[in-house]
Amino acid sequence: MKKNIRLLLFLFLFYSTTIFSQERFTLSGTITELSSNETLIGVTVAVPSLSTGVITNEYGFYSITLPKGSYEILISSLGYQDIVKQVDLTVNQKLNFQLAEDAQQLEEVVVTEDVEKLNIRKPQMSVNTLSAETIKNIPVILGETDIIKSILLLPGVSNAGEGSSGFNVRGGAADQNLILLDEATIFNSSHLFGFFSVFNPDAIKDVKLYKGGIPSRYGGRLSSVLEIFQKEGNSKNYKVNGGIGAVASRLLVEGPIIKDQAAFLIGGRASYAHLFLPLFDVDNTAYFYDLNTKLNFKLNEYNNIYMSGYFGRDVFGISDSFVNIYGNAVINFRWNHLFSDKLFSNLSLIYSDYYYGLKLDFVGFKWNSGIQNFNLKYDFKHYLSNSFQLNYGVNNIYYRFNPGKIEPSDTDSGIIEDQLIQKYANELAVYIGAEQEVTEKLSLQYGLRLSNFVRLGQDELNVYQNNNPVYFDPFLQIYKEAEPIDVEKPKRTDQLASFTNLEPRLAMAYTFDPDNSIKASYTRLAQYLHLLSNTSSPTPLDVWTPSGPFIKPQLLDQYALGYFKNIKNGEYSLETEVFYKDIQNRIDYIDGANLIANDAIEQVILSGQARAYGLELLVKKNEGSVQGWLAYTLSKSEQRTPGRTTSEPGINNGAWYNTPYDKTHDVSLYINYKLNQKWSFNSNFVFQTGQPTNYPIGQFEFQNLSVPYYGQRNEQRLPAYHRIDISATLNPKKNKGRKLKSEWVFSIYNLYNRRNAASIGFSRNGDTGVNEAVRTSIFGLVPSATYNIKF
Amino acid sequence: MRKIIYYAVFLISIGCQDVIEVDLPTEEPRLVIDALIKIDDINRQTAMVQVKASLSSSFFDSVSPAQLEEITIKNTTTNTTLTLVESIPGTGLYENEWEMEQLTQGALELNIKHADQIYLAKTTFVPTVPIDQLEQGNTTLFGEEETEVIVSFTDEGTRDDFYLFDFDFGEYLVTEDEFYQGQQFEFSFFYDSKLEDERLVIISIYGVDKDFYNYMNQLIFQSGPDTGPFSSPATTVKGNIINITNNTYSLNVDNTNFALGYFAVCQTFSDSLLIKK
Asked: How many Å apart are CA A779 and CA A755, to the nearest integer?
């Protein structure tokens, strides 16, 4: 039996026999930052003589196995000074490196050659990384550094406009993004309905966005994986970092608990309590805060322990009549263990929770909803040789969904307390994936994920005629909610539905020469959760619902092909990709569906499909005093929901229609210019095709209402969206040689004050009785200043 | 709810609105039937039945009255038919008086002939409960320029009720009793503007069925102010008036030539409130 498995593994992995033919030894270790002991992600450990190398993982660990011999090892990472080290590899060796920040980045051209070469060779495509430094440099609205707003400048990423939450990757919906903060799932990434994102930039080390070619260790969302790594904390010195901005103030403290061994980090951010609202002469409050904490203990060479936590809330209130509180909470325990110098493991125990609460006094009720999950992950990285790495692991998530509980807000209220039926589910996945250099020119990344989703018993489950919760009225020609014919009361341990999916992932890179490669990938993904939202932009009160007896999991097939090129030895780089995505079981809603406080959501949902395809182009300048990128995306994103039988029309007559995030052209230009040690300048230019919308094809009167009516969905578009933002950063001279470093950031958002339409509404003016088209624009020109300190 | 969120977004941003010119697509005018028949005193012998027929227009034009070839209401339980007539020619207003029992008992059909097309709608009478109390409040939600009216009524506990409220000035609201079955329920309605002193406001409650509730819910939303990124897809809201020209009573009704509007017979209660500054 054991032999058989081995044989299978052998066949499956194209295991190259050459690795047994020579005596080989492993070089492994951790790479950290010199001044803080912060582990560094994505550092290249290259062996130029063999033109091979590896990259440190999320925990700063690397392992490379080479034939016995003497090598020159080059350790390099953008923004850090290189280390060149002579290693005589005659036994397995542990070598930890510490990189110093490259202070003279301006004068000295950083050797990035090998970094880029490796990227060219790696089969991983459709991925963008942003360092905390870049994110901080990008000019943003009101100077509030923002991860989500930064990734919008990348090709293939957009959102539903200013003041809308979430983001859309390659024509995918906002609920198809897996947002991981230190491996914990974040369900809502926005503060204040989308104006700011929930991540405190000071606490962030690195951000990685996968748009396609998603490795088998990720699953559960179709369109992207946004991995955000928090800093671990400085185990050498105490550091304080803070800023005062137009919207919020931040403070972050980190330092050693035991020098070089254990460290803590605690960061807080809070907006001002009555943000903007005093302007409106109303007794209102609107603010948000978040808290990031992290502890790390280096127990010994083989064991590291991390604890991290996140807590964020938005509070929005109008007098006492309307109070709205929502946010995420995450707690996470991780244990890194090295079984050997080739086998790295990480065990994570994660609890995460999203809460939404609302009090509406003028209707007399309180409302609470949320989603909780317990997540256990055990991941292994097996560095078998310098040309073969195996990743495998298991992941189990238990979910509890509370679609809402309504309670009377006071004793006079006529509202009767009611708990909408809570839902329970379990998602289990096992995966295996390999990264393999087949030849000098060809490398592969392939894997398989097996996922299983079980919808567990709940207090009540509706039973419908023919198992069909949506009824099509053939007389009125509209879809209606079907009346349940019975209600079952399953036990919690019952399986109401179970889904199993095999998700293959495949990617390859073929390198023509050190500066040119082509890559191709295929990804299949299953998503078992659905965000119930029929608006262009998700709102915080949208609830998540699991797949089950009436709702099938969404399935994606994505194909991508790309050409990658380094120009002038990596000073410039070019990435072009084409992609095609096909999504099954995308849910859509019947006309007039009520999604809020709906205890039988299956009655308003129909299953459809979605597809997206496009071309992405990214030209980057990686070195020198002027850096930046130009991103262009040409794409199409549409969906349809045909009738279930030939006598039904489906939604929108079953025709394909543009998704609200379909943007034909999307151009972003970002430039960073370091004038001297004192001043640096940044600028963005954004141009996008206006988002799809509906213009009325007519109007009619019913009672005292004047009602515009509309044709097929999303056939018109808003005017094109464009703007320029600029910022200037001042590092005063007095910083030199001083422990306390200060910095001013001045910025102007929407420099030429364009009134970009966030929407166009059609209604009758109540005062004049005349029908009007009203354009709403959110931000005109917005200047701001932020003051940051560090000591 | 979405409206509230949208206001919130608008408030915290430095947003602004302006009127712009837009070229709009158009379609052929459609027949529009406003056949909301209000029964305000069920104890009377007869009730006045009024139906308004009009033609839709492009958004920036104005709607015009429609001339029907025939309009009748039939009680299919008693097999009695009432023909409506246009009292003042050219108004598109068709009316006639009918016995209360015919309207409130049994199944009703509205039959219309217009431009060689035959339309049909079906409904039954829906009862409701009276308004217990109307009161002026003094809180505001989104600015000083608002007027609060507090409405209370007692839900009937033995049935699932759907309600339509008419707040005058073309302001409507729908609610259902899912969370206050059999209770006295009180809520506030906010007028966007400060109503003038001594203004008499008439507020009505209508009993509606679930389909009409859904219909009005969409109409209110679609005729209301723009809710930006939080608006749901806009459509042609289909009512219950179908085109049966080519198929009488079959399941293959004409899916494209339907008329807009609705046929409903609703019990209603009204109350008035004198607004004080």
From this structure: 7
Whole-number Å distance between alpha carbons of A273 and A287? 5
Give B80 to chain A, closest Cα distance, Å: 23
| Span A332-386, pLDDT tens digits | 999 999 999 899 999 999 999 999 998 888 788 888 999 999 999 999 999 988 7
Contacts made by residues A645-649, CB under 8 angstroms, sequence distance 24+: A647/A472, A647/A474, A647/B251, A647/B252, A648/A472, A649/A477, A649/B255
Cβ contacts from A onto B, under 8 A: 292
Return the residue matching tokens 């509890």: A400
User: Can you say whether residue B143 is alpha, beta or left, with left for phi > 0 and alpha for psi between -120 and 50 degrees?
Assistant: left
Nearest to A535 among B22, B230, B262 (CB): B230
Helix H or strand E encompassing B219: helix B210-223
**A146-178: b or e for each residue (b if 16 or more CB lie within 10 Å)?**
bbbbbbbbbbbbbbbbbbbbbbbbbbbbbbbbb
Model's pTM, two decimal places?
0.89
pLDDT in tens, A454-512: 999 999 999 999 999 999 988 888 899 999 999 999 999 999 999 999 999 999 999 99
Closest C-alpha among B184, B30, B271, B13 to residue A776? B13
HEC profile for A153-203? CCCCEECCCCCCCCCEECCCCHHHEEEEECCEECCCCEEHHHCEECCCHHH
Name the token pair of B101. 């029992």
pLDDT band at B66; cut points 50, 70, 90: very high
Rounded to an integer, what distance in angstroms lies between the CA atom of residue A80 and that of residue A641?
A: 52
The per-residue pLDDT for range B142-199, each reduced to its tens digit, is 666 788 899 999 999 999 999 999 998 888 999 999 889 999 999 888 887 777 888 8
Question: Could you tell me which residues are beta bridge partners of residue A169?
Answer: A157
> Which chain B residue shows the shortest CA-CA distance from A781?
B14
Average pLDDT, chain A: 87
Cβ(A192)–Cβ(A669) below 8 Å: no
Tell me if A721 sits within 8 A of A692, measured CB to CB.
Answer: no
Is the Cβ pair B229, A163 closer than 8 Å?
yes
Rg (C-alpha) for chain A, rounded Å, is 27
Q: Cβ atoms within 10 A of the Cβ of A535, count?
A: 21
Cα of B154 vs its chain's centroid, Å? 22
Q: Chain A partners of B185 at a C-beta cutoff of 8 Å?
A: 364, 414-415
pLDDT tens-place string over residues A666-712: 999 999 998 988 899 999 999 999 999 889 999 999 998 999 999 88
- Bridge partner list, A80: A101
